[in-house]
Design brief:
This protein is 64% helix and 0% strand. The chain is built from 9 helices and no strands. The longest helix is centred in the first third of the chain and has 23 residues.
């Protein structure tokens, strides 16, 4: 249930942030209540588990509270908070070993390996937010891959199904499934390389 702070309802997010940065706990609480539903939806969409999502949203809110003084008002508070939530979810996936799609060209003979690293738990808040943006971009680019390639990629790299199961699920031969997976990896690597200049922290190593 949302608890209203009548004296704060009329304030903008920017004004609430300014109060929170001065130690106003009620202002921070009002900010969180305004954006709580959006954050929960984001977390559930990434983790696919309501309880895990709620845990990481609460962890994100605590981190936001700890680092509110570092928030730069050139950005929107909602964007900043969403990136923290996304970062928490990505780290949860990393811990659960459900993010094997980070290795985009594993085992491709004659090709350099493109590796995208998720945020490390020792990252500073600024680095974590930058890495969260990388995660968002990766998610977007996966969904821009042609459906024929995207299906095999998600089954293999996200859901971690064995290749024979992937082929069976798609009703194609094992050789065809491996061929599509290779094409999907190469397409995603090419798409991510277009962002390396803008994102900066994306790691593409040979």
């Amino acid at each position: 249930m949302r608890v209203h702070h009548p004296n704060l309802d009329h304030l903008t997010d920017e004004q609430l942030v300014a109060l929170a940065q001065q130690g106003g706990n009620e202002a921070f609480s009002e900010l969180i209540q305004r954006h709580q539903s959006t954050c929960k939806r984001l977390a559930v969409s990434v983790l696919k588990d309501k309880l895990d999502a709620e845990d990481e949203v609460q962890n994100a809110f605590w981190k936001a509270y700890e680092h509110i003084g570092q928030f730069n008002q050139d950005a929107k508070f909602s964007t900043w908070l969403s990136r923290i939530v996304l970062n928490q979810c990505l780290m949860r996936l990393r811990k659960d070993k459900r993010a094997r799609f980070l290795y985009l060209d594993e085992g491709v003979a004659g090709e350099e390996v493109a590796r995208l690293d998720l945020p490390d738990e020792s990252s500073t808040p600024e680095e974590a937010l930058a890495q969260a943006e990388i995660g968002t971009t990766l998610h977007q680019e996966i969904h821009r891959i042609p459906p024929l390639l995207r299906e095999v990629f998600i089954l293999r790299e996200v859901q971690e199904l064995p290749m024979p199961d992937v082929a069976s699920r798609l009703g194609i031969s094992l050789a065809a499934a491996k061929s599509r997976l290779l094409r999907a990896r190469l397409e995603l690597r090419e798409r991510m390389q277009r962002h390396t200049g803008r994102l900066g922290l994306v790691t593409l190593t040979a």
